[in-house]
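Duplicate of earlier report; POP1 protein input re-posted below.
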Amino acid sequence: KKQAEKAVHQKKEQSKTKCRKARRRHINLVAEFNRRQRKNIWLETHIWHAKRFHMVKKWGYCLGNSPTEKSYRACYRAMTKHCLLQDLSYYCCLELTGKENELLKQLGRMCSIDAGLTFQEACCLSGRFEGSLNLYRADRYPEDMLGPVTFIWRPRDGSEHRQLWIWVHPALKQDILRELKAIFQCSEPEEICITEPITTSVQEEKQMEVVMSPGKKRKKEDKEGEKVVPVKKIIGDGTRDPFQSYSWISQTTGIAISDKSMEILRYRLIGPLSHSVLTETLKAASVQTV
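Output:
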């Protein structure tokens, strides 16, 4: 009797689950992928890596750790003769905007010319090259080192206002961001744009209606009758809560700090054919003057 009741109960549970064809529909796949990114953010190349690598969860991301097959020779061959691409999008990007003199004045407190390159290097200040240096706590060199970072300036456009992008490792982001906010005296702006949650709420799901028509597939529609197409939503990054602010501004200096993590993708190309791959992939847009 117990076995019979158990079998009936299992049949009821199995009937509720969707078949594989329904699960593999694009609308259901995207919703499932968004649900699985609640705790650990996926990179844009996650699906490709998940099929070929052992994945690990680090720094709030899901990253490929080691390949599942012997691909070391193939990678070495690509680096020496062709081109090898690495996805570094998990690195966090901090954007600083404001007057150039004020930016250089305060950033100079976190680095020293005795340690090598600084933010004032001429080749980097023009925006032509990317620089790298070690950051320290303000006025604490050579003690209290925060960690290595890379930076790039936006080329000058004739204005005194400049843009600076600083790329930091996710393990160092919070310490460096806290120090930058302190030296620039930045606080949260009055208007904070809160992004949408990854999954749709219960109320939104109730608003969707399943329309059945003979000879056609089921389509989800909203109140206005438009098709509901779920999109991949990257909410924040692995080092920040989705509902925390991501922009700060100083009322005294006018310097603004924005967290651009997972908004700017970053790839590294290694190999002699890297430049040719870029030239074939990226096409220059025609400039239209009004």
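The chain has ten helices and 13 strands.

Merging into the original ticket.
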